[in-house]
Amino acid sequence: MLDAKHPKTLRGMYIGGQWVKAARNFADLNPNDGSLWAEAPDGTRADARAAIEAAHKAFPDWAAAKFSERAKLMNRIADVFERRTADFIAAIQAEGGGWYGKGAFEAHYIPEVFRSAAATCYNAQGDVMPSEYGKMSTAVRFPMGVISVISPWNFPGILTARGFAFALASGNTIVLKPSEDTPYLGGIFFAEVLEEAGIPAGVFNVITCSRDTVADMGDEMIENPLVKGVSFTGSTPVGRAIAAKSGAHLKKCCVELGGKDSLIVLEDADMERATQAANFGSFMHQGQICMSVEKVLVQESIFPEFLEKFAARAAKLKVGDTADKANVIGPLINDRQVARVKAQLDDAIAKGAQVVVGGGINGRFVEPTILTGVTPDMLIYQDETFGPVVPVIPFRTDDDAIALNNDTEYGLSAGIMSSDEARALAMAQRLETGMCHVNCSSVNDEPHVPFGGSKASGLGRHGGRWAVETFTETRWITLDRGGRPFPPVF
């Protein structure tokens, strides 16, 4: 178990079933106070190449393994992870800067990802189709080969597990590179767990690097001809570049990117439920969630009441070092993120927005902040914030709310609060989002559902059979039983 109070040298990268030291390490910081939490391996492009080659070598045997054996291994991974829950939560509080409750949620969710992946091993792997020529005509899904997985820092457990579990269960081999902000939580911890569970050598590999070398390592993970697919979760600008580079090499990619998600509150909404959904959706993990509520759209007739009760809830959230379980709002992950949030907040205030609650920034700690008077010319209206600052915007009609939601390049998730389900469902069908939740926050996920966005929020889907479709290729295979005739000239 890592002691969050004393810097540790992490075991190394995990390549071909071996722990591999890097030529140098980089500082893995605790975002609460900027202290050195661990020394992490600063890998190179050559390390990425070695991991890819190890995964390629292991692929034939893993792809040929019995589906039941792959399922058993997925379940063993879940069991080992459950035994390591305390270690994971402690690292979430320190390396990840997350609230204890957030860590507990991730730790209990992740085993279900692997159990859901195990279940897909028993699903049908294709279709039998009619044939005019009496053929036995089948469409069968096969694993692709080596899959590169690039995972983020904000939910490094869930989003890493989701990024590779279904691909692994489907018979692919994995090369995982976690974020340089969470190399342990998003990478090395998984290597420890999968090694203990008995993963065959080379089937699962982890490489880590600093921000200085991330572009070079990332290029190898996409451009190497042995890599057949790419799974990326992160920001839209980086996702665009990865998708473009993958396309240039004709490689399948699944990119789950940013959002500018709305919570739409209609006049018939339950006020208690609506304000809680807004508070959770806007400020959980400091708003550092791709599905975070970044615009609260409230019908004019209930706007004053909603704003008063929402502000009262937000004001009660405690801000501080996440070593203290009582502090629900921890630090932003790094100084770059603080600067981004501050720039949006300063721009909004300069252009006439009013701070209803919050607004303070102390180092990496940003108070839960509610704004009114936000207009389309402000950065906070246009761009993803990824911080605990949210505008509350009034609307008159359902059409107005839909237009406000769709007025963005993003299209990840949304929530609609209303006692009229038919009305809410009719609105949901017109929202340009990959997901929508009636009478709940935009922040929702389950391992077996089709998770993903539209527009600039991504391509492809994670979760359940949709992840299997994403990380396999379909082959048409026939058996000729009808003696299909060839032209006599042949």
From TrEMBL:
It comes from the Bacteria. Gene3D superfamilies: Aldehyde Dehydrogenase, Chain A, domain 1, Aldehyde Dehydrogenase, Chain A, domain 2. Keywords: NAD, Oxidoreductase. Residues 19-477 form the Aldehyde dehydrogenase domain. Transmembrane segments: none annotated. Coiled coil: none annotated. Belongs to the aldehyde dehydrogenase family. This is Aldehyde dehydrogenase family protein. The lineage of its organism: Bacteria, Pseudomonadati, Pseudomonadota, Alphaproteobacteria, Rhodobacterales.
